[in-house]
Design a protein that fits this description.
By secondary structure, the protein is an alpha+beta fold. The longest helix is centred in the last third of the chain and has 27 residues, at about 355-380. It has helices at about 1-25, 45-65, 80-85, 90-105, 140-155, 180-185, 230-250, 255-260, 295, 300-310, 320-330, 335-345, 350, 355-380, and strands at about 70, 75, 105-110, 120-125, 130-135, 165, 190-195, 205, 270-275, 285. Helix 5 packs across helix 12, helix 7 (about 230-250) packs antiparallel against helix 14 and helix 11 (about 320-330) crosses helix 14 (about 355-380).
Length: about 375
């Protein structure tokens, strides 16, 4: 019996040691046995999964809760709020896409999905897709290209899909696979077209207050209290959009909707022209063919709509205001745009640049926006 008792005691101690070892194993992360599994990452421990869950929950709470002060210094969106704006098209990603699109062959051309009937949806040899826009006149393609690079100058290019120019040459390497389709397109040989990256799952955007009711109302710091974070994030993007459309005199977006109010009182409750929303909530400024060239010829018609829209905005991204202040101080808006356009677009000379008069108009509109921002600052300081 004594020998049996000692055996039972030894067995009990062994079981206790085994139990302690198992508990320690649960507390300590096990080394990865196969780092190639799961794309080369180390397998997550239970503790790491819990931490990731807490991080995700905290991120969701940050997105849902409005910032304590959405505006700082009276007229600038807070840094916290700007950090919540979806990133859009990163500069490196856009540059890589433009380079790839210029070198890719056009594998097929399809009708529909890209605006007017003369445009085509292209499938490129790398598997990506692009809208090929053939303007009614070359100035529309010029306006599209210059608007894209002006957005870069203003720090807004992440809101526009990447764009590059291409030369239509039926016997050229890029277009050889679709030679038959080109014959049916009625595109002129040697014409310059724009290639714009196709973006999936975009949805329509209805103008928010203060523009959704028809006559623009003021977007100022005092109008923002109590608004949810998602609405504030959208307004940050709208403030850039309205400045951008004033500078380019683009009438084919919110201004055209305002114009249509005279016969359609519900038009502002419908989708805004050439403005879409990405799945992450970021706004996408589409189809800027009316900007800078065509729009500058029609200022008398469309400034009665674009100017009140500009005056309705008195909260800005500080980076936008800073860039405009520099272009105003140096009085070199057209020269900087030309430099950027030439450096980034190999076919720029095929379309040319702004005329002297158009360059003067661009500078005048930069100066006007800068003065408007200064007026907003003075009004905020007086409160």
């Amino acid at each position: 019996m004594e020998r049996g008792g000692r055996a039972a005691l030894a067995l009990g101690l062994l079981l206790l040691l085994l139990l302690l070892g198992a508990l320690l194993a649960l507390r300590e992360p096990a080394p990865a046995r196969d780092e190639a599994r799961g794309g080369g990452g180390v397998q997550k421990t239970f503790r790491a999964l819990l931490a990731a869950g807490r991080d995700q929950q905290q991120q969701q709470e940050r997105e849902e809760d409005p910032p304590a002060a959405p505006v700082r210094r009276g007229i600038f969106w807070s840094r916290e709020l700007e950090a919540r704006v979806p990133p859009g098209f990163a500069a490196e990603e856009a540059a890589a896409w433009r380079a790839a699109a210029r070198g890719a062959r056009v594998a097929s051309l399809e009708r529909g999905g890209c605006g007017r009937s003369s445009n085509r949806l292209a499938r490129l040899s790398d598997g990506s897709r692009a809208c090929v826009r053939y303007g009614v006149s070359p100035e529309q393609i010029q306006g599209e290209a210059l608007s894209y690079h002006l957005a870069g100058l203003l720090g807004m290019q992440q809101r526009l899909p990447p764009m590059a120019l291409a030369l239509v040459e039926a016997r050229g390497r890029q277009w050889e696979p679709v030679r038959e389709e080109l014959r049916g397109s009625h595109w002129a040989e040697g014409a310059v077209v724009s290639l714009t990256r196709w973006v999936d799952n975009l949805t329509a955007v209805v103008a928010p207050a203060p523009w959704g009711g028809g006559r623009p109302r003021a977007l100022a710091a005092g109008e923002l209290s109590g608004l949810p974070a998602a609405q504030l994030v959208e307004l940050v993007q709208w403030s850039d959009l309205i400045l951008f459309d004033y500078l380019t005199a683009n009438f084919d977006r919110l201004a055209s909707n305002l114009f249509s109010l005279q016969w359609d009182p519900r038009v502002m409750r419908r989708a805004t022209s050439n403005l879409l929303r990405a799945p992450d909530g970021g706004l996408v400024f589409m189809d800027n063919e009316a900007g800078l060239v065509h729009g500058y010829r029609l200022l008398a018609t469309w400034d009665p709509y674009n100017e009140p829209l500009l005056r309705s905005v008195c909260v800005f991204r500080e980076g936008t205001a800073r860039r405009l202040a520099e272009l105003h101080r140096r009085r070199n808006a057209a020269a900087e745009l030309r430099r950027r356009y030439r450096a980034r677009e190999p076919l720029w000379a095929r379309l040319g640049f702004l005329s002297e008069r158009q360059a003067e108009l661009l500078q005048a509109r930069v100066d006007f926006v800068h003065r408007h921002i200064a007026q907003c600052r003075a009004q905020a300081a007086a409160l």
